[in-house]
Amino acid sequence: MTRTSLFICTLLLICYVMLCVGCAQKSPEELYALAAEAHEAGQIDNAIKYYKKIADRYPDSRFAFKSQFMTSHLTADTTVKDISSSEEAYQEYFFNEAQQLQVDQKFEEAVTYYRKFLEEYPDSKYAYKAQFMIGFVYAEEMKDTASARKAFQKVITDYEENDLTDDAKWMIENLDKGPEEIITGEGEK
User: Fold this and answer.
1) Residue 117's domain spans which residues?
2) What is the pLDDT of residues 22-34, one digit of tens each?
């Protein structure tokens, strides 16, 4: 075999190995499923390893933030065996992060967080609150009444009667009024 043939064979072998290794890398979804499976089985150390892999390999994926939370949650309390309680804690944490962005006056980011929350947890006990807060931020902070109206309407139509339904209706009725009109009741029929 000539040197050129040997070089080409070696190069092809290296490419083949790299291709195999690249294909073997799991997606963030697959890693998260493995982490959740390990967590549910009480294999906390393995679950933490999978969560850390997601955060390290896929920092921009939709699973990265959640994996970081789960890692810190499990690291702080390795007695946590029930993933559903961790999921609920994560949902509360995620919702609170959106609220903190609002407090920090990062209104567009807050709306983005609330929307991401709704995408991931449409059936969460916090979902209608996140939808209401989208409307509130649009109305009160960003002065975008059209977007606020749509967001508040979704609270009314997409979620069964809840403790913010009346507030959403009130906000819709008063979006175009100034503070003086609301206080004095002027402009009411």
Assistant:
1) 91-189
2) 446 889 889 888 9
